Amino acid sequence: MKGELFLLSSVIFVLQVVGACPEKCRCHSSSSSVDCSQQGLAEIPSDLPPQTLTLHLQDNQIHQLPAFAFRSVPQLTSLNLCNNSLSNLAPGAFHGLQHLQVLNLTQNSLHSLESRLFHSLPRLRELDLSSNNISHLPISLGQRWENLTIFAVQQNQLQQLDRAFLESMPSVKLLFLKENLWKCNCHLLSLKLWLEKFIYKGGIMDSVICASPDTWKGKDLLKIPLELYQPCPFPFPGLQTSQLQPLGSAHWAVPSPPDSDSAGEPDHAEHELKPKPRPANLRHAMATVIITGVVCGIVCLMMLVATIYGCTYAAITAQYHGGPLAQTEEPTKTEGKELLDSSPA
């Protein structure tokens, strides 16, 4: 009897846990979604139904996400954290969300993101980081996001973006990058080349408008001719940042190396940085040859026309002056002969 009562109480407890819904949330069992939006929450509810697939937490006052913040909803596929006050995300904040596909982090106060933050999201398809204060993204994620197709990071403080970060998203089809502080120097050249290849393969993006330097301010990165970019200088070992020479608008500050290297090779500071030789452009070389040939041909043709004209003019002039001269000389000779004949014998 006691065993049956214990079993019955256990079943009732499990049913209560499965059917439980947080106090300030609205649960929809038919769609396995939980709506906790606009409730003034300062943290993630701990009693979320474990079968939840979609979780709405937008328009709250959540400032940070601790590690394992969503351990109670391991089946989650869509998470909306839009318009909170998130400024700190623990590296393991999304740990356990192996099925998450859509993550919305727009309109928060994020300044940077660590690559480890996304290691537990292998099935992520959409990541929206718009309208934050992100000034830099990881150089590389350390692993590939094979399923990511949409990446949005517009309206942030980004000045540059390493192409290795984008190369870790081989399936991305939509990119949103506008309204950042893009610094169109030599270090954005790799991003320009990657974006051109991305568009050529059918990718869709908005735009990358330069915020600096003044030469390119307001210009679209993809519309700046490739030939106008100067190659980045390669720092020598032991070279300090203050000793670098600017290279037009493409100059940037290179971090100084460890003290051990600079102490061992003090003479390297006297070397000057020289730009990397630019590879010859076959298309421009052919165009130069063709233009040069056309110009030479025109010059030769003009010289030939001038020669023909000069010879013709000389012949006409000679013919014009030769006729009357012959006619005037003929009477002279006749008169001279008459004079000889009329002279006394």
Key descriptive features of the protein:
single chain; nine-stranded mixed sheet; 5 helices; 13 strands; 29% helix
Averaged pLDDT, please? 78
Query: Which bin fits the share of residues in helices?
Result: 25-40%
Number of helices: 5
* Rg estimate, integer Å: 41 Å
Order of helices and strands: HEEEEEEEEEHEEHEEHH
**Any idea what the shape is?**
rod-shaped
What percent of residues are in strands? Answer: 5-15%
For the termini, the CA-CA separation is: 185 Å
Structural class category:
alpha/beta
Biggest beta sheet attributes: 9 strands, mixed
How do the strands of the widest beta sheet line up side by side?
1-2-3-5-7-8-9-10-12
User: Unreliable stretches, pLDDT < 50, 5 or more residues?
Assistant: 1-18, 239-276, 325-330, 332-340
**Tally of strands:** 13
Describe the structure.
There is one protein chain. The protein has 345 residues and is an alpha/beta fold. The protein is built from five helices and 13 strands. Strands 1-2-3-5-7-8-9-10-12 form a nine-stranded mixed sheet, with no helix packed on it. Strands 4-6 form a two-stranded parallel ribbon. A two-stranded parallel sheet has the order 11-13. A hairpin with a 4-residue loop joins strand 1 (26-28) and strand 2. The chain starts with a helix and ends with a helix. Residues 1-18, 239-276, 325-330 and 332-340 have low confidence and may be disordered.
